[in-house]
Amino acid sequence: MWKLHRYYLRELVVNSAITFLVMFAVVLVSLVARGIQRSMGGGMLDAAKITLFWALDSFPHLVTIAFLLATVLTYARAAQDRELIAIRAAGISPRVPMAAAVMVGILLAGTASFANHYVIPEVHFQKYRVIADVVRNVFQNLRLGSDRIPILDSGFVLSPREVARAPKGGYIYKDCTIYCPQGGSISKIESPIVRVREVSIPVGENSEYVRIVLRGVEDPISSFYNEGPIIFDLDIHDIVDRDRREDRDDDLRTDHLLAEVLRGVHPRPFEAIYTLFRRCCFSLMPALLAPIGFCIAEMTRERGRVMAILFGLFPLSIFYCGEVLGARALRATNNPWTAWTPALLLVLFGLPLCWRQLRR
Fold first, then answer.
1. Whole-angstrom Cα distance, residue 161 to residue 172?
2. Global pTM?
3. Residue by residue, what is the 3-state secondary structure of the chain?
């Protein structure tokens, strides 16, 4: 029996690894644009880290989908080659070849449990904080990467022709045009449009303000020129606190989340318990899908592997429909046990299927 287990175990592990790597690569490539967008204020290394963290955040979904597809492909191949028929003809129960899938599913369930409760929350937290909140929010809210930079409520709109990074952090804009409709806000200039040779905006994490330094200010109408520096200080809290992202339950490890609930300091304890149950539900999915994938593969023996994969998508659809229904039921009832809706629907679907197929 062990030779039979090892035979299917090796093929199943290889198929699962290849499927997971292909799907992870697809997700990684698809998130490159988002990583670059969210790395505004940082460099290419920050963009790479953000992209990797966003891809790792999809680990629970990828493990579940990759394992189910690999199980269906492995046993669909065995069914088409009449291996499963030969096993039945030899008087061996179909549960014997299925045991390899169950063992891998249990192993993946344990790995996914540790990842969902401890690793993924940390990844979810870090993917928003690769770049310091102060630097990122200043960059985004001031729109320092655009060709027109509104300086909050001061009325200034800065249009630079050349942008460079300052050696000590921040940005230097050269050959700029500043539009100020109020007039008279810069030195003694009355014109609403002025030319500035250089504008520097140093951005520091520990500062209480953002300093804007103008050098070489020229009024094109009156030919007035001021070498400067002319300095404006903006309160950094007015900039950083705009669109600030608050910490959520997904950012907390399960032990921290449960500690807040037990101490009575969590503002929404039923949502925290729902998050805990949801992580447990996602962790159990590989173990629940192992027998379902085996039965689907054997049931579609005469229809080919493509049809087996299409039938394999049906339990995935049930699982994610249960995820949506559970979230809506939580909002309607405030009952955290609704997090188990996907697993319950999957059990109701899988029990008759496995009972019928394994007892044939």
1. 11
2. 0.69
3. CHHHHHHHHHHHHHHHHHHHHHHHHHHHHHCHHHHHHHCCCCCHHHHHHHHHHHHHCCHHHHHHHHHHHHHHHHHHHHHHCCHHHHHHHCCCCCHHHHHHHHHHHHHHHHHHHHHHHHHHHHHHHHCCCCCCHHHHHHHHHHCCCCCCEECHHHCCEEECCEEEECCCCCEEEEEEEEECCCCCCCCCCCCCEEEEEEEEECCCCCCCEEEEEEEEEECCCCCCEECCCEEEEEEHHHHHCCCCCCCCHHHCCHHHHHHHHHHCCCCCHHHHHHHHHHHHHHHHHHHHHHHHHHHHHHHCCCCCHHHHHHHHHHHHHHHHHHHHHHHHHHHHHCCHHHHHHHHHHHHHHHHHHHHHHHCC
Both tokens of 333, joined, read 């009832």
Q: Is the CB of residue 126 less than 8 Å from the CB of residue 23?
A: no
What is the rounded distance in angstroms from the CA atom of residue 315 to the CA atom of residue 84? Answer: 22
288-303 mean pLDDT? 87
Task: Report pLDDT for 26.
Answer: 92
Among all chains, which residue has been given the structure tokens 């046990």? 337
Retrieve residue 170's tokens.
């921040």
User: Which residue, 223, 227, 237, is CA-closest to 197?
Assistant: 227
The pLDDT value given to residue 226: 67
Asked whether the predicted pLDDT for residue 347 surpasses 70, the reply is yes
Sign of torsion over alpha carbons 124, 128, 132, 133: negative
Phi, psi (rounded to 5 degrees) for 213: -115, 125
Q: Tell me what pLDDT residue 211 has.
A: 66
- In this prediction, residue 183 carries a pLDDT of 47
| Cβ density class 151-168: b for 16+ within 10 Å, e for less | beeeebebebeeeeeeee
